[in-house]
Amino acid sequence: KILLFFGKLIKRKRPIDFLKLAKLNLNNKKFHFVMIGDGNLMRDCKMFIKKNKLKNISLLGFANQSKLRQFYNISDLLILPSFYETWGLTINEAFAAGIPAICTSHCGASKDLIINKKTGYTYNVGDIKDLKKKTDLILNNRKLSSQMKKNISKRIKLYNKQITVNSILKILNEK
Fold first, then answer.
1. Fewer Cβ close by (within 10 Å): the C or N end of the chain?
2. What does the pLDDT look like over 112-127, one tens digit per residue?
3. Res. 159: pLDDT tops 80
């Protein structure tokens, strides 16, 4: 099972929380953590991996936009541990690939896209134990994971160009 972090390695995105999750799963040979991104916390991430002897993580650095689909297609779960996200586009990208997501409740997209137990989970910033619990719920339950993928497919069909245009027109007509 592949868990994915995609984002800048900066304080607001809390990449160390993703590494802490990897550390809690150090003895779980079924999970592998893939971290894609670059930023001023790259060195801290490398030091955390080395200090904790994490063998279950691949820190790949920056990836070109054209390679994103390949990473989503091999992944089983997206983790977005950010302290703050205006939206969280990686959730949209993961959903387009049929991948459930776990993000903090401080992620804008969580209000529209994440339905707990249906398309993923939210958790409180920094609560790594709860993050692990929810990760395990999805990845250790094939039936739940499969149902989430079906729910994601239904959910993203609610968001298309015509529906968006109609919503904007409705708002404009109400004014």
1. C
2. 899 999 999 999 999 9
3. no
**Rounded Cα–Cα distance for residues 81 and 124 (Å):** 9
pLDDT of residue 28 exceeding 90, the answer is no
pTM of the complete model beyond 0.70 = yes
Ramachandran class of 66: left when φ > 0, alpha when ψ lies in -120 to 50, beta otherwise: alpha
User: Residue 39 is which amino acid?
Assistant: G
Q: According to the model, what pLDDT value does residue 29 have? A: 87
Helix residue ranges, H only, 25-88: 42-51, 68-74
Name the residue among 162, 156, 39 with its Cα closest to residue 98: 156
Residues sharing a CB contact under 8 Å with residue 57, sequence separation 6 or more, in sequence order:
19, 22, 32, 33, 34, 35, 49
Which residue from 58, 94, 60 is spatially nearest to 78, judged by alpha carbons?
94
The side-by-side arrangement of strands in the sheet containing 32-36 is: 57-61, 32-36, 2-6, 77-80, 101-104, 120-123
Residue 127 backbone phi and psi in degrees, to 5: -85, 80
Q: Measured on CA atoms in the order 174, 166, 158, 5, is the torsion positive or negative?
A: negative
Helix ranges (DSSP H) in the chain? 15-24, 42-51, 68-74, 89-96, 128-139, 142-156, 161-174
